[in-house]
Amino acid sequence: MSRRSGILEFAVLGLLRESPMHGYELRKRLNTSLGVFRAFSYGTLYPCLKTLVANGWLIEEPGNTTEDALAAPLTGRRAKIVYRLTAEGKEHFEQLLSQTGPDAYEDEHFAARFAFFGQTSRDVRMRVLEGRRSRLEERLEKMRVSLARTRERLDDYTLELQRHGMESVEREVRWLNELIESERAGRDLNGSSSGEPDSRDTTSGASGGLPRPGGDPRPDTPDDTAT
Protein backbone atom coordinates (compact mmCIF):
# COMPACT_ATOMS: atom_id res chain seq x y z
CA MET A 1 0.00 0.00 0.00
CA SER A 2 1.36 3.44 -0.89
CA ARG A 3 1.60 6.14 1.76
CA ARG A 4 -1.02 8.22 -0.08
CA SER A 5 -3.56 5.39 -0.19
CA GLY A 6 -2.88 4.59 3.45
CA ILE A 7 -3.72 8.18 4.44
CA LEU A 8 -6.92 8.05 2.38
CA GLU A 9 -8.04 4.79 4.00
CA PHE A 10 -7.37 6.28 7.44
CA ALA A 11 -9.43 9.39 6.65
CA VAL A 12 -12.34 7.40 5.16
CA LEU A 13 -12.51 5.14 8.22
CA GLY A 14 -12.41 8.18 10.50
CA LEU A 15 -15.23 9.97 8.71
CA LEU A 16 -17.39 6.86 8.62
CA ARG A 17 -16.83 6.39 12.34
CA GLU A 18 -18.89 9.57 12.74
CA SER A 19 -21.76 8.34 10.58
CA PRO A 20 -22.51 6.24 7.48
CA MET A 21 -22.19 8.12 4.17
CA HIS A 22 -22.43 7.52 0.45
CA GLY A 23 -19.56 8.20 -1.92
CA TYR A 24 -20.47 11.76 -2.83
CA GLU A 25 -20.81 12.76 0.84
CA LEU A 26 -17.44 11.20 1.61
CA ARG A 27 -15.71 12.95 -1.27
CA LYS A 28 -17.21 16.29 -0.23
CA ARG A 29 -16.07 15.87 3.37
CA LEU A 30 -12.59 14.86 2.27
CA ASN A 31 -12.38 17.86 -0.05
CA THR A 32 -13.79 20.52 2.25
CA SER A 33 -12.81 19.34 5.73
CA LEU A 34 -9.52 17.57 5.04
CA GLY A 35 -7.70 19.90 2.67
CA VAL A 36 -4.96 17.39 1.95
CA PHE A 37 -7.50 15.55 -0.24
CA ARG A 38 -8.68 18.50 -2.33
CA ALA A 39 -7.09 17.18 -5.50
CA PHE A 40 -8.41 13.65 -5.78
CA SER A 41 -11.19 12.06 -7.80
CA TYR A 42 -13.86 9.40 -7.56
CA GLY A 43 -11.41 7.19 -9.44
CA THR A 44 -9.21 7.32 -6.34
CA LEU A 45 -11.97 7.06 -3.73
CA TYR A 46 -13.96 4.08 -5.01
CA PRO A 47 -11.04 1.62 -5.28
CA CYS A 48 -10.23 2.59 -1.68
CA LEU A 49 -13.82 1.90 -0.60
CA LYS A 50 -13.85 -1.46 -2.38
CA THR A 51 -10.62 -2.42 -0.61
CA LEU A 52 -12.05 -1.50 2.76
CA VAL A 53 -15.19 -3.53 2.05
CA ALA A 54 -13.09 -6.51 0.96
CA ASN A 55 -11.11 -6.27 4.20
CA GLY A 56 -14.33 -6.41 6.22
CA TRP A 57 -13.92 -2.90 7.61
CA LEU A 58 -16.92 -1.46 5.72
CA ILE A 59 -20.23 -2.81 4.50
CA GLU A 60 -22.32 -1.51 1.62
CA GLU A 61 -26.00 -0.78 2.17
CA PRO A 62 -28.66 0.64 -0.17
CA GLY A 63 -29.60 4.25 0.45
CA ASN A 64 -32.77 4.55 2.52
CA THR A 65 -33.79 8.17 1.95
CA THR A 66 -36.82 9.12 -0.11
CA GLU A 67 -34.52 10.69 -2.68
CA ASP A 68 -32.52 7.49 -2.99
CA ALA A 69 -35.66 5.38 -3.23
CA LEU A 70 -36.94 7.51 -6.11
CA ALA A 71 -33.59 7.75 -7.89
CA ALA A 72 -33.93 4.61 -9.99
CA PRO A 73 -37.47 5.05 -11.40
CA LEU A 74 -37.14 8.80 -11.96
CA THR A 75 -33.62 9.07 -13.34
CA GLY A 76 -32.79 5.58 -14.51
CA ARG A 77 -29.91 5.42 -12.06
CA ARG A 78 -29.57 3.00 -9.22
CA ALA A 79 -29.85 4.29 -5.67
CA LYS A 80 -26.67 5.44 -4.00
CA ILE A 81 -24.78 2.96 -1.88
CA VAL A 82 -24.19 3.92 1.74
CA TYR A 83 -20.95 2.83 3.40
CA ARG A 84 -21.05 1.86 7.07
CA LEU A 85 -18.16 1.08 9.42
CA THR A 86 -18.17 -2.45 10.84
CA ALA A 87 -17.06 -3.41 14.34
CA GLU A 88 -13.83 -4.71 12.81
CA GLY A 89 -13.41 -1.42 10.94
CA LYS A 90 -13.85 0.58 14.12
CA GLU A 91 -11.28 -1.58 15.90
CA HIS A 92 -8.85 -1.17 13.00
CA PHE A 93 -9.31 2.61 12.97
CA GLU A 94 -8.66 2.79 16.72
CA GLN A 95 -5.45 0.83 16.18
CA LEU A 96 -4.41 3.34 13.51
CA LEU A 97 -5.22 6.22 15.87
CA SER A 98 -2.87 4.78 18.48
CA GLN A 99 0.13 4.67 16.12
CA THR A 100 2.78 7.33 16.65
CA GLY A 101 5.54 6.22 14.27
CA PRO A 102 7.47 8.51 11.90
CA ASP A 103 4.73 8.45 9.25
CA ALA A 104 2.47 10.35 11.65
CA TYR A 105 4.84 13.34 11.51
CA GLU A 106 4.99 13.71 7.71
CA ASP A 107 3.15 16.62 6.08
CA GLU A 108 0.10 14.89 4.59
CA HIS A 109 -0.30 12.20 7.24
CA PHE A 110 0.04 14.69 10.08
CA ALA A 111 -2.75 16.84 8.64
CA ALA A 112 -5.06 13.81 8.50
CA ARG A 113 -4.05 12.69 11.99
CA PHE A 114 -4.64 16.16 13.41
CA ALA A 115 -8.12 16.26 11.89
CA PHE A 116 -9.07 13.28 14.07
CA PHE A 117 -7.44 14.45 17.30
CA GLY A 118 -10.92 14.74 18.78
CA GLN A 119 -11.04 10.92 18.74
CA THR A 120 -7.44 10.47 19.89
CA SER A 121 -6.22 9.99 23.46
CA ARG A 122 -4.16 12.77 25.03
CA ASP A 123 -0.94 10.75 25.35
CA VAL A 124 -1.05 9.85 21.65
CA ARG A 125 -1.79 13.46 20.69
CA MET A 126 1.24 14.56 22.68
CA ARG A 127 3.56 12.04 21.01
CA VAL A 128 2.36 13.00 17.55
CA LEU A 129 2.67 16.75 18.24
CA GLU A 130 6.13 16.40 19.77
CA GLY A 131 7.25 14.17 16.91
CA ARG A 132 5.97 16.67 14.36
CA ARG A 133 7.74 19.52 16.14
CA SER A 134 11.01 17.60 16.25
CA ARG A 135 10.72 16.80 12.54
CA LEU A 136 10.11 20.46 11.67
CA GLU A 137 12.95 21.69 13.87
CA GLU A 138 15.30 19.36 12.00
CA ARG A 139 13.95 20.65 8.69
CA LEU A 140 14.34 24.24 9.81
CA GLU A 141 17.97 23.72 10.82
CA LYS A 142 18.76 22.18 7.43
CA MET A 143 17.10 25.11 5.67
CA ARG A 144 19.16 27.60 7.68
CA VAL A 145 22.41 25.79 6.92
CA SER A 146 21.55 25.57 3.22
CA LEU A 147 20.62 29.25 3.05
CA ALA A 148 23.84 30.29 4.76
CA ARG A 149 25.89 28.30 2.23
CA THR A 150 24.10 29.51 -0.89
CA ARG A 151 22.98 33.05 0.04
CA GLU A 152 25.61 34.81 -2.07
CA ARG A 153 24.78 32.74 -5.16
CA LEU A 154 21.02 33.36 -5.05
CA ASP A 155 19.16 36.15 -6.79
CA ASP A 156 16.78 38.28 -4.74
CA TYR A 157 13.63 36.38 -5.71
CA THR A 158 15.03 32.92 -4.99
CA LEU A 159 16.38 34.22 -1.68
CA GLU A 160 12.98 35.63 -0.78
CA LEU A 161 11.31 32.33 -1.64
CA GLN A 162 13.65 30.45 0.69
CA ARG A 163 13.01 32.95 3.45
CA HIS A 164 9.28 32.51 2.96
CA GLY A 165 9.67 28.75 3.30
CA MET A 166 11.64 29.15 6.52
CA GLU A 167 9.07 31.55 7.95
CA SER A 168 6.27 29.05 7.19
CA VAL A 169 8.10 26.31 9.08
CA GLU A 170 8.86 28.68 11.97
CA ARG A 171 5.15 29.58 12.21
CA GLU A 172 4.13 25.94 12.39
CA VAL A 173 6.73 25.26 15.11
CA ARG A 174 5.28 28.14 17.17
CA TRP A 175 1.78 26.76 16.57
CA LEU A 176 2.89 23.30 17.69
CA ASN A 177 4.48 24.78 20.82
CA GLU A 178 1.15 26.37 21.72
CA LEU A 179 -0.74 23.12 21.14
CA ILE A 180 1.74 21.11 23.19
CA GLU A 181 1.52 23.59 26.04
CA SER A 182 -2.29 23.38 25.96
CA GLU A 183 -2.16 19.59 26.01
CA ARG A 184 0.24 19.60 28.97
CA ALA A 185 -2.02 22.00 30.84
CA GLY A 186 -5.08 19.85 30.12
CA ARG A 187 -6.80 22.55 28.06
CA ASP A 188 -8.71 22.17 24.80
CA LEU A 189 -8.18 24.49 21.83
CA ASN A 190 -10.50 27.23 23.15
CA GLY A 191 -8.63 27.39 26.45
CA SER A 192 -11.13 25.55 28.65
CA SER A 193 -10.39 22.41 30.64
CA SER A 194 -11.03 19.23 28.69
CA GLY A 195 -11.10 15.54 29.51
CA GLU A 196 -10.00 12.54 27.53
CA PRO A 197 -12.02 11.78 24.37
CA ASP A 198 -14.56 9.03 24.89
CA SER A 199 -13.61 6.16 22.61
CA ARG A 200 -17.31 5.25 22.46
CA ASP A 201 -18.33 8.65 21.12
CA THR A 202 -18.73 8.45 17.37
CA THR A 203 -19.99 12.00 17.00
CA SER A 204 -16.97 13.93 18.26
CA GLY A 205 -15.77 16.71 15.99
CA ALA A 206 -13.13 14.97 13.96
CA SER A 207 -12.72 17.31 11.06
CA GLY A 208 -11.65 20.53 12.71
CA GLY A 209 -9.03 23.04 11.65
CA LEU A 210 -5.92 21.72 9.94
CA PRO A 211 -2.43 23.19 9.85
CA ARG A 212 -3.15 25.14 6.67
CA PRO A 213 -2.99 28.81 7.79
CA GLY A 214 -4.81 31.04 5.35
CA GLY A 215 -5.84 28.18 3.07
CA ASP A 216 -9.57 28.19 2.42
CA PRO A 217 -10.93 24.95 0.99
CA ARG A 218 -12.02 25.13 -2.59
CA PRO A 219 -15.76 24.63 -3.08
CA ASP A 220 -16.69 21.14 -4.09
CA THR A 221 -18.10 20.67 -7.55
CA PRO A 222 -21.59 19.13 -7.36
CA ASP A 223 -21.72 15.68 -8.82
CA ASP A 224 -24.75 13.50 -8.23
CA THR A 225 -23.22 10.44 -9.85
CA ALA A 226 -24.53 7.38 -8.06
CA THR A 227 -22.13 4.99 -6.42
UniProtKB/TrEMBL annotation:
Residues 184-227 are annotated as: Disordered. Transmembrane segments: none annotated. Keywords: Coiled coil. Residues 126-167 form a coiled coil. InterPro entries: Metal_resp_DNA-bind_regulator (IPR052509), Tscrpt_reg_PadR_N (IPR005149), WH-like_DNA-bd_sf (IPR036388), WH_DNA-bd_sf (IPR036390). It comes from the Bacteria. This is PadR family transcriptional regulator. It comes from Streptomyces purpurascens. The lineage of its organism: Bacteria, Bacillati, Actinomycetota, Actinomycetes, Kitasatosporales.
